[in-house]
Amino acid sequence: MEPRPPQPRSARPFETPGSPETAGIGERLYPTPGDQAFYPGAEIDASGAAAQPPLLPRRQRRQRGVIRGIVVVVVALGLLVGLGWVFRDAVRGIVVPPGPPPTAELQAMAPGTPAPAPESAALPNALATVTPTPAGVSTATPEVTPETESEETAQPETDTGDGEPDRDIASETLPLLDLLPTQAQMPAGFILADEAERSKEEVVAALGGTEEAAVFLDEWGWSGNAYRDFIADEAAPSPNGTTFLNFSVHRFADPESAADALVVFSDQVIFGQGLQEVESPAIGESARLLVGDSEGVTLTVLYAQEGPIMYRIGGSAIAGGDPTADVLAAAGEIIAGQAEEG
Predict the structure, then answer these.
(1) Do residues 43 and 51 make contact, with C-beta atoms less than 8 angstroms apart?
(2) SS (H, E, C) the chain
(3) Cα-Cα end-to-end distance for the chain
(4) 310 strand-pairing partners
(5) Is the Cα dihedral 131, 136, 141, 142 positive or negative?
(6) Tens digit of pLDDT for each residue in 5-32?
(7) Which residues have C-beta within 8 Å of that of residue 295, sequence separation ≥ 6?
(8) Closest CA to 272 of 220, 218, 207, 332
(9) 272: Cβ–Cβ under 8 A, 6 or more apart, which residues?
(10) For a tag on the chain, would you pick the N or C end, based on fewer CB atoms within 10 A?
(11) Short-list 228, 311, 296, CA closest to 266
(12) Residue 218: its pLDDT value, please?
């Protein structure tokens, strides 16, 4: 009996007819050379696009969530800060910080510092040579300077009992007081408030404090200054509304020097204080009359020269008043020439 030739072995040993569910298992488990192998993540959906990658581990997902939250918070804070910067002016106008308590203001003041006076108590003084209207006889009277110096508060002189005020004036300056009007020579409605002298340094400061001013005084032979102040009598004030009159005399070496000083002193007032020169009356050897208004106060200043003496008479009046008549009337009592000439 001849032997049966061997049957060829099928390449699909598990594939048998009638079992379609298991058909091709061998191919899936053991792909033949050349066939595309199956790898995790290489699935292809029905449309042919690559499938989504697998999920990350839970720990990595939490870390990424925390990072995203921090980024969101930082961005939100940045937006809030930016909006606050843009609208800072509007918010500042709505929210007004409270002011300091009154006790804090009191503590800020230095010990012994007097409380500031109200605005109503500070009278205007555009022309420093004329002291503004004082509040009353009993109050402190601002000192009137002969030129453009600042005001200084001066108390009324104390009566010594013989009718003369108690004063401290150098003996060489006392003769100048005889050139100033007395209470009897004053127009009605004025009371003597102060009289004193000024040093050369004070006069130089009144002329601007320059070296040129000191040289002028030396060249002119300046040798003294005295002044006398009168304030309005509240019981019987002047009908012209004049509230203050100041009389000042300067002594120089000769009439020519006094005449030159008159021009310089009056020019200082015109250019520095803004007063205007008007027609002067016939008084003394030379004269200049200056008038003007400053912050509700009417000012009049008369400069006159008689021999080696230069006079300066200044007056101030309330709004609507004019001190010119009182200034000229008092000048006629102490300066020669006006009564005869005019």
Answers:
(1) yes
(2) CCCCCCCCCCCCCCCCCCCHHHCCHHHHHCCCCCCCCCCCCCCECCCCCECCCCCCCHHHHHHHHHHHHHHHHHHHHHHHHHHHHHCHHHHHHHCCCCCCCHHHHHHHCCCCCCCCCCHHHCCCCCCCCCCCCCCCCCCCEEECCCCCCCCEEECCCCECCCCCECCCCCCCCHHHHCCCCCHHHCCCCEEEEEEEECCHHHHHHHCCCCHHHHHHHHHHCCCEEEEEEEEECCCCCCCCCEEEEEEEEEECCCHHHHHHHHHHHHHHHHHHHCCEEECCCCCCCEEEEEEEEECCEEEEEEEEEECCEEEEEEEEECCCCCCHHHHHHHHHHHCCCHHHHC
(3) 186
(4) 250, 305
(5) negative
(6) 776 666 555 555 555 555 555 555 555 5
(7) 124, 125, 126
(8) 207
(9) 148, 208
(10) N
(11) 311
(12) 96
Q: CA–CA separation, 132 vs 294, rounded Å?
A: 10
Instruction: Give 163 or 225, the one with higher predicted confidence.
Output: 225
- Beta strands at 276-278 and 242-251: parallel, antiparallel or unpaired: unpaired
- Higher-scoring residue by pLDDT: 91, 296: 296
In this prediction, residue 93 carries a pLDDT of 56
Q: Looking at the whole model, is its pTM more than 0.90?
A: no
- Go through the domains of the chain in sequence order and give each one's CATH number: 123-156+176-321 (3.40.1000)
Q: Which residue has the tokens 């020579």?
A: 185
Q: What is the pLDDT of residues 213-230, one digit of tens each?
A: 999 999 999 999 999 999
